[in-house]
Design a protein that fits this description.
By secondary structure, the chain is mainly β. Helices cover 7% and strands 40% of the residues. Strand 25 and strand 26 form a beta hairpin.
Length: 397
Amino acid sequence: MAEIKSKIVLKTKGEEAYLSLKQLKVTLKWSAAVDLDLMAFYKTKDGRVGGVFSDNYAGGSMGNLNVFPYIALSADAGVGAKGGDNEEEIRITRLDDMAEVYICTINFTDASRDKTSTFSSYDGHVQIIDDKGESIAVPLNSTQPGTVAVIARIDNSGFMGAKLVNENHVIDMPTFQSAIPGASLLKLSSKIVLKSKGDSIQLKTKSGGGVGELMVNLNWSQGQTKQASGFFSKLMGGGGSSGGGIDLDLGCLYELSNGQKGAIQPLGKSFGSFDRLPYILHCGDDRTGAWAEGENLRINGAHINDFKRILVYSYIYEGVANWSQANGVVTIKQPGSADIVVHLDNTQDGSPMCGIALFERSGDTLKVTKVVQYVKGHEALDSAYHWGLKWVEGRKD
């Protein structure tokens, strides 16, 4: 277990220590390959309840240090269940209004799969440093299985001031949401946002094998000017403009385990098939973004062993190559799991194509990685990911 460098270590449930009231820094550290989320839930002296937790959860709030609740979360680390020196931090600048604050962590990796956890195996602990620099640590050493660890409680209800109490017990989600003030705000059926290039997550496997049916949705804003000439002609420098919204297309490159490679996209009417090879189907072309549901790819995840990799991309078939105004977003939906969201951010206007997310088979599941790379066209994207297809000019009727 990693060394805990704190002046005071509350090793046993029920141990307590008094804190300074001015400022507190609460840091959760762990090294195991799980996605732990640090959270703070509170009850005020006048009876209000609430919580500060990652905005990757539906309704989540990172908090605010300058106005109520005077609690803020730094970031959401460990997305995709990465091992290493993981760390999340909560800062508290004022406790005057608070009766009690609960410091908790949830193992999202297991909780989203309805599995239980043993937190003692994560080599984790919480360290609390007050404004005087005094540090108090609570090791994450409970061997009780569950999905939520209630690590510590700040009790500010007494006349002697705030004190930190080692709670260190592990409970299931229903108990947590009913017993901890404000915890009912937390909903697991939320969204996982892959925020940075390289962020990844493994999809949940189904009891019968595979990952089930996946829906990859592309949505974007309207209101740009179309180019009448089409995608490939535009790359050659041709075309005037005509009115209407931008034509943003969704597609993918695929490579199967038998070596077969290809592309699924509206251009060339290559819509694929859900029930036979390549087990990927484009659901239809939205020329203007007028469909509320955008464009969709269906991936038949029951045939997991037939896939090697899939690269989801989008291209601007007609309209100015202005990604910053398109505000594109891809949402990956898997029944029974949180939606996975990839924003087409860090835009590079002038490049009409964007590689968005890479699916790679990993055992009996798929790993999804955010790539978001803007390129000049299909051949450039093919070259960047070593696909090896031959490309010819095409149009949509």
